[in-house]
Each structure stands twice: as structure tokens, then as C-alpha cells.
Amino acid sequence: MKHLFTILCLLIVAGASGQNFNIKGEVADENGGGLPAATVMLLNAEDSTLVNFTVTNADGVFELKNVRNKRWLVKATFLGYHPATVVANPPEGALLDLGKIRMQPKSTQLDEVTVEGEHIPVTVKKDTIEYNARAFKTANNAMVEDLLKKLPGVEVNGDGDITAQGEQVQRVMVDGKEFFGRDPKLATRNLPADAIEKVQVVDGKSEQAQFSGIDDGKREKMINLELKEDRKNGAFGHATAGVGTDDRFEAKTNLNRFTKGSQLSLLGMANNTNQQGFSIDEYMNFTGAASQMMGGGGGRITISANSDGGIPLNFGNNNNGIMTTIAGGLNFNKDINQDLELNGSYFLNNLEHDISRTSVRENLQPDPERNFNYIEESTRENTNNNHRGNFTINYAIDSANSLRLNGNLSFNNTTTNTMGSSRTLDSDGSVRNDSEQSNYTTGTSDRANGSLLFRHKFGKKGRTLSVNSEFSYQDSENEGTLQAVNRFYGPVTEEIILNQESVQETQSRVLGSTVSYTEPLGGRKYLEANYSIRQSTNDVDREVYNIVNEQLIFNELLSNKYSSDYLYQRGGVNFRYNQRKYNLTLGVGYQATQLDGLLELRNVAIGQHFENVLPVARFNYEFTNFKRVSIDYETSVQEPSIQQLQPVVDNSDPLNIYEGNPNLQPEYTHNVRVNFNSFNPMKFLGFFAFINLSYTEHAIVDTQQINEQFIRYTRPENVSDALSIRANFNFSLPITVLKSRINIGGSLNERHASTVLNDVQNNFRQTSATLNLRYNFTYKEILDLSLSSSINKQLSDYELNQPDQAFVNSTYTVEMNYSFLKSYQLQTVYNYMLYDNESLNFKEDISLLNVSLSRTFLKNNKGEIKLSVVNLLDENAGVTQTAGVNYIERQSTNALGRYFMVGFTYTINKHLNPVGGGGRRMIFRR
């Protein structure tokens, strides 16, 4: 693998050599004026097939570089003008100057004809780049994700995340409408590429800016997928089923029925091959909050995720135990009339997740001689059922008034059975304590939330009023049993046996409203005033019982019943100054927070009142439509939770004892972000970079006391300030002579903070740096080749007498799609992962190889059969490395081994009869 990029460089150099030449010219109107953003195509003189293209700059000038030494056709197109074609013969030198290519305007008469065979690949508009999908060929049965990978200026990584013109794509729409909410992957991985007519990459303004007409400088990168006309009134999709060795199976279906004014889509899947479904966001809903790994030696009945700020470096490439998933969803959009739109979706998920995990954690102390290791082995069986639905109603009352109603409902049921053992070893390797535990929990959670937004435009342009009211309600019930044996070794061995049952009910309610008013001041100056009020109420009733001689005895120390009421009020005013090239926002807010809490079992009242002034400033400058810079300064407040404030000792885990602190102050954070984006639509060069600086006053950290038996006592405290820096850049460029693209990206995360351990404050610095390289080569519709690497290094530097901790994780990937004999396709994905951790004396390399061979058949290639092998080398890839404030840790989990699978896919493409008559059914059976 280390020679991979050396070979790549040699290929680039070799491909760049030869007697090629450049073609330049100017596309002009009938009067000789340059036409900006005109499309210029390079066509084969023999058959007029498209080879390359570009767009003109602001002066109408274009250049096609590294053109092979042969005769070509150069064709220019521009909206409202007749296409113009000129012959490009090889020049004597290295440059062919075509001079001005004059274009004639089209007639306004109704005799114009659109030539379907003429596929203008790219059209550039003010804030939109539009790609003609017909000009970018994809393989049979390809998804939209495969189409996006072929578009210049668009990148799709291995996880399916989309970057367009250097920026992360936040939303993917279908014909301008939401598709299963805001998750882009649901559209790109489930809609067929051949259903798309155009791909529009849009720099969308914020909803508030679109409503008020006042540009606030906020942008959201979006993609809109415009369907072909026949798909807008038809049914299309696909269904897949597969069986494999070791009883592996998978099935997936995607059906869409679109008509004028309505969209209906169905997704379904079932597998035991660790395919979580549709996206990582969906997976988080599958697992549920109660499925997190328990973090202590003795275990807690209430299982919670670690909160110590660890930085995960590698997620095991989706090899985190064995998962069986059944999931399905329904999405619909309906235009009731021209003023009323309805959108909604429903998902159901069922996940069975079995994990066997071994964790090795080295805990760092102020005195290195007191460092100790914690080793845990556990198995967990988790079952989760989740139902959730949402809807949106948009109603345009008239030209000045509108309403939007949003609603979400969810139901979650989780069962978790965990068994494990752990031991703590001192620096000499002697066991100081150990534990064996069995924990069973089951619970349900119901949640509902909604909002109603009213907007009004006054007669004076820029004068607007909006009122947004929201509510949420959540009710959860959990019960569980805990059996644990904890032993402490010293001069006298001590043993603590736990045999407990618990029941906990939690209810939370939130009501709030925000009012915003904008007033034009003249000269493109505006004033915005806003006020928000929100009340959050929580009631928790937790009962713990000790089981003694099969009798339940109430444990008052571990039980807790409390209520809390947070009241937030915030008012603010912003001044905005907008110009054609830039806009400026200066504002200030005042926030008051009142907390009233009561610990009913202990008759302890908690009351806190916080007041803060929150300034804000934003500046945006647009050099061109595709080059801009923004600078944002914001302040925010994070109040401590009722759990952090309550002075109650939680010793349900004898190895990890927690106590709240009623004297905590809120965290006050200053945040500065500088963002720069540049994209050249003529050369498809993209560059994106940002740096984010965050400074927190009165940072809240969990201070720890660790005694001679390595029992950990944790209490939240306000310590010295904290600083974090995040930076990221991405650069992409095409190499047209090699039909290739290169993408270079990197990130830097640095954190300066403090922690308190055994009454000693330890200042530390953590740095994580990542470099990503990616090379893509495409040859017609025959070969797609991708080479990539990701190298991450993390360094922890401690002020106390501790050696620096450093480790490196690297991943090298080769992906190839090869089409041959018209109907065959070979796909391979090879990942080489290298973990190097000197601190734990750990070094491991893992090779993962997946190979598949497929063949399309039936009429119009509607059928596809695929033979695949996953993890051909039969490697265990469930490895994770993590670094925290005062520890480093390595985890290994069970993972899927090698298996073979054969699958069949059937593609559905049915044009609906607009007359309606009779109707037909289309049934897929396996």
C-alpha cells in the first residue's frame, strides 16, 4: 500500500506528457459582447460524442486544456441562443485560439424545437449549478449516489456524505419537496439514477431570509433532484433479496409512485449483515438511549453513556457486534391545492444487537507511579423497537400571511441484558478490585412535539412579524434488575454484594414561544427585535429495592424523587446592513434563567437564578456568486442540569460514586467562526476552509478522587477556562486529460482544558490531526477506480509529570467498479487499516476485502443477479481506540466473519395511464 500513491503520481506525469494542445476562445452574442457561464462542449469529430466541457468566465472566455492532437468539434450553448459549432484542427504550436464564437438569439415564435439528443451537461445560474443527468452515464440499476460521484464539483465519500463545491450538503430534495425528512442519504441511496432528469446544486438562503427578503448571510448547501417527466407520473423502484452462508440474509425494497401534485415512497429492509439501514441517524434511533455500554465495574441500573469528552478515532468500520435489522418507512407529499401542502413520513425499526466486548483502559494519575489499568469483558443482548412519525402542513393564507404546522410522534421499547466482569490493576500488575455483574433493563418511551409558525408581511417591504410556538412531551418508564459482586483487595478483603430491583418513571414537558419583528430603516438597513420564553418541567420518580430473602426492601439512599422547573426568557435586538457584496449584523441579547427544584424524599429545595448578556456579530462578503467569506461571533450559555446540581450521593455502583454540586455556575462560551468558500465553475476547482475558535468561561468538569482501593468519587465543579480550536479544509480539482479527479482534505482539532484529580489541577492539551487524500479515475461507462487514504494522529500533552500520549490510525482504500461484456459488473472494495498505539504497546493491521460479480438480464436490464463475498480475508475488524482527559483506551468487539451471498434485484419502471382506467398491480415474489 505504501507504493500506491507513488504509482498514482507516475500515472499522472505519464498521462500529462505527449503532444496535446489547449483550445481557447470567447463566446459572444450577436453584437460581440461576452456571454458569461455559457457551456462549451468538446465533441468527437467522427460521431459528435461528448468528451469534455467547460463554462465561460465573466467575460465569456473559455479554455479547454490538454486536448489530444486530433480534429475536434467545439460546440457552445447559452440559454436563449442557438447553439454554435466550430471545427478545431490541431495547431502547429500548443495553443489553438478560436477567437470569438458568435451566437444568434432564438426566435420568439412558437416554432422552436428542443433537440433531445443534445445534452448540455452543465448550466450555471446565479446561485445554482444545474447538471443534466443524461450527460453523465451510470451503470444499470445505479442509485443517485452513483450519479453524484460522476458530477464535476461533487464528492461522495465512503459513508455517503456529499460535498458540493467544497461544502457539506445538508438536504436533498426531490422535485423541490422533502424526502423522508432532512437526511440526504435516504434519497441518494434509494432513488434510481435513471429516474433523474437534472441535479441542481443550490446555495439556499435561510427560511427567515426567504420570508423577510432580508439576507442574513446564512447559506445551506442543498441538492434538488428533478425527475424525468415520465417518472413524475409513474411508479418506479427496485426490490432486492439475497441469501448467504452462515444463515446470512438481506432484503431491501424501494417503491415510488409519483403523480402530479403528489409523491408516495416506501422503503423496507431486513438483514442480519450489520446493514443498519438508511443512515447513521436512523441507527441512533434503532439503538435507543438504554442500549449504551455501562461504564463502571459494578454496573448501574440506569445505563448512561460516558460523558468525559473522549474522542473516538475509529468506529470499527461498521463491525460492532452482530445486528439483525427490520425497518421500513413511508413518505408522502401532497399538494392539496395551490395554497396548501402536506408532507409526512412514518418509520418503524426493530434491531437485535449482540455484542461481546473487551476494553483495556490505562488511567493516568498526577503521580505516574499510581497509574492503573482497568480491564472489562462483557456481553450484551439488546432489542429495540421504535416507531416514529412526523408531518408538516404549509398553508399560504394569502400573499401576506402563512402558517406552518410541524408534528412528531415516537414510541420506543428497549430491552437490554448485560453480563460482564472487570478488574483494576495497579502499576505493579496486582489486582486491587474486581467485579462480576448481571444487569437487565426494559423500558418504554413516548415522545410528542410540535410547533406552529405564523408569518405576516406588512405593506412596507422588509417589515415582517413571525410567531413560533412549540411544545414537547416525553414519558418514559424503565425497570431493571442488578446482581453484582464487588471485591476490594488490601490488608483485608472486602466484598459487597448487590441484588436489586428498580423502577423509574420520568416525565418532561416543554412549552415555549418566540416572537420576531423586522423593521426597514432605509438604505438597506434593518432592525430586528425578538423575544423568547420557554418553560421546561421534569418529574423523576426512581425507586430502588434491595432483594433480601426474596423480599423487596426499599432503599432510601439510592431512591430519588425530584421535580425541576426551568424558566428561560431571552430578548434581543439586531441591526442589519445589507449591500450587494456584503451584509453585516450586530446584535445583543439578554437571557434570564430561573431554576426551581425539589428533592422530595430528602425535602431539599434547589433554587438558582442566572442572568447573562449575549452579544452577536456576523459579516459576510461575496466576491462572486461562487466565492465568499463569512465571519461569525456568537455567545451562548449552558446551565447546569438538575442532576448536576442536586447534592445527592449515588453509590449504586460501589466502584464509581457520584455526587452533585448545588453551587455550580453556568458555562459561558464565546464562539468565533471564519468560513471561506471558492468554486470555479469554468475549471471545476473547489476550495473550502473554516476555522472555529471556542472559549468557555467557568467550564464544568467532573472532578475525581481515587482512593487506595481505586474507588472513584466524581463531583462536577467549575474550573478554569477551556479553549478549543477546529479547522478544516477541502480542495478538489479535475485532471481532464486523465479523466480523473483529486480531492485533498484535512482537519485539526485542538483542546486546552483542565481537570481535577485527587485535588490536583491538571492542565492538558489534546490535538487530533487528519489528512485525507482521494483519487478518482473514470473511463467511459467501463471503469471507475478510486484510491483514498485517511491518516489520523492524536497527541495528548499533560502539564503534570506524565509522558505525552500519541497514537496513529490509518486507513487505505481501493474501490473499483468494472463493467464488461455489456451486462457484467465486477466490484471490489479493499480497506487496509493500521492501528499504532505505543502507550498501550499495541499495533495491529487489518485487511478487509469485499468482492462482487453481477449480471443484468431481462428486458431493459430490469433483473440483476449478484454473487458477493464479504470480508474475504476473514479478519476481525471490530477495533476502536479512544483518548480521554486522563485515560487512553482500546476496545475490541466481535464482528461478522467471512460470508458468501447470492442476491437478485428487480427494477420497476411503470408509466401510469393518465386516464386512469382499470389499474394494475405489480407484485414481486422471491
TrEMBL record:
Residues 412-424, 436-447 have a biased composition (Polar residues). The keyword Transmembrane does not apply. Residues 412-447 are annotated as: Disordered. GO terms for cellular component: cell outer membrane. InterPro entries: Beta-barrel_TonB_sf (IPR036942), CarboxyPept-like_regulatory (IPR008969), OMP_b-brl_3 (IPR041700), Plug_dom_sf (IPR037066). Keywords: Cell outer membrane, Membrane, Receptor, Signal. Residues 425-435 have a biased composition (Basic and acidic residues). Residues 456-799 form the Outer membrane protein beta-barrel domain. Residues 1-18 form the signal peptide. It comes from the Bacteria. Pfam families: CarboxypepD_reg, OMP_b-brl_3. Transmembrane segments: none annotated. It is found in: Cell outer membrane. This is TonB-dependent receptor.
